Amino acid sequence: MRLVFAGTPETALPSLRTLIDSPRHDVVAVVTRPDAQSGRGRKVHPSPVAALAEEAGIEVLRPQKAGDPAFLDRLRALEPDCCPVVAYGALLPQSALDVPRRGWINLHFSILPAWRGAAPVQHAILHGDEITGATTFQIVKELDAGPVYGVVTEEIRTTDTSGSLLERLSVSGAGLLAATLDGVEDGALEARPQPADGVTIAPKISVTDAQVDWAKPAMHVDRLIRACTPGPGAWSEFRGQRVKLGPVRPAPGERLAPGEIAATKTTVLVGTATDAVALGDVQPQGKRLMGAVEWARGVRPEDKETFE
Questions:
Q1: Which end of the chain is more exposed for a tag (fewer CB within 10 A), N or C?
Q2: What angle is formed at CA 281 by the lines to CA 280 and CA 284, rounded to 5 degrees?
Q3: HSE (CB half, 13 Å, CA atoms) of 45?
Q4: Helices then strands, each counted (H, E), the chain
Q5: Are 11 and 174 in contact (CB under 8 A)?
Q6: Whether the Cβ atoms of residue 133 and residue 177 lie closer than 8 Å to each other
Q7: Could you tell me which residues come within 8 angstroms of residue 243 by beta carbon, excluding any fewer than 6 positions away?
Q8: Which among 170, 106, 166 is positioned nearest to 142, based on CA atoms?
Q9: CA distance 111 to 275
Q10: Kindly report the CA angle at 167 between 161 and 168, in degrees rounded to 5?
Q11: What angle do CA 168, 164, 104 make, to 5 degrees?
Q12: How far apart are the two ends of the chain, measured CA to CA in Å?
């Protein structure tokens, strides 16, 4: 099939590479978000999907909005049979959905109808799910509600961050997306409506949401930090300045007041509503990432001093 692939971040790269290499399909263009500033110098860079497409000699479309008339005209001229989507990051109006004859097929990183929305992997970790996965489905106007083609599952490990889990899902999901497109082309695969029960929503996790509440149980603190790693980054305040926190380790039997810091030569414990947790990496505001012991050696927390 003639494909126009829509995606933006690194998460979409395994799928794009798989489809470029597929002998059955022809990626004639990609649609991605406009180039954006990134890095310390705030230089303008293409999205990861745009960079890979340009390297492969594939046309790149960067509409400000997917409903822009010039973009729609070019999309129609490309005459795609289908438009696969992986983490494109923008809404698709009906005028765009109507262009490919086989529609737009999305790879979503949850087992739908669970965790519809922008942050399914983060919410799966945050809420303590043991199993998640990826789903291919036909895009309709309602958010992540279209009929499903296929699913793969993935166990959530107790040490998983959203970054590590998403990395695995992006690889297994790429195979699912390719198999879905093969089945659609063959006419052997039929999309089935999602169940009416079990719908949960996964909105984007903001920087405000990522602040650690030390008055919560250790299990919640652990899940929040892992869910927010690498983005947006869990954090707390120490002496009025923000400190970004990496994944923590449980410290069974160690009890401190919520937020209280206890530093030794080998570990830094912080109290929660239940057992304390041992800090991993920390990044003080405006400084480099460092181990918790190195950080504590520099700031020297006073007796019973706390994160805020």
A1: C
A2: 135
A3: 14
A4: 8, 17
A5: no
A6: no
A7: 235, 236, 237, 282, 283, 284, 285, 295, 307
A8: 106
A9: 32
A10: 100
A11: 50
A12: 56
Rounded-to-integer distance, Cα 89 and Cα 209, Å = 20
What tokens were used for 202?
A: 């996964």
* Dmax (CA) of the chain: 69
Inter-residue contact 94 to 139 (CB < 8 Å): no
Residue by residue, pLDDT tens for the chain (308 residues) are 999 999 999 999 999 999 999 999 999 999 999 987 666 666 788 999 999 999 999 999 999 999 999 999 999 999 999 999 999 999 999 999 999 999 999 999 999 999 999 999 999 999 999 999 999 999 999 999 999 999 999 999 999 999 999 999 999 999 999 999 999 999 999 999 999 999 999 999 999 999 999 999 999 999 999 999 999 999 999 999 999 999 999 999 999 999 999 999 999 999 999 999 999 999 999 999 999 999 999 999 999 999 98
Residue 280: which residues within 8 A CB-CB, separation 6 or more? 245, 246, 247, 248, 249, 291, 292
Residue 27 tokens read as 């990626």
* Six-digit token string for 129: 């799910």
DSSP letters spanning 40-61: TTTEEE--HHHHHHHHTT-EEE
Residue in the structure block whose two tokens are 């438009």: 83
CA distance 125 to 130: 8
CB 243 within 8 A of CB 284: yes
Reference 16, options 104, 86, 82, 71; nearest CA is 86
Which segments of the chain are extended strands (E)?
2-7, 26-31, 36-38, 43-45, 59-61, 83-86, 104-108, 131-138, 148-155, 234-238, 241-245, 249-251, 261-263, 268-270, 276-278, 281-284, 290-291
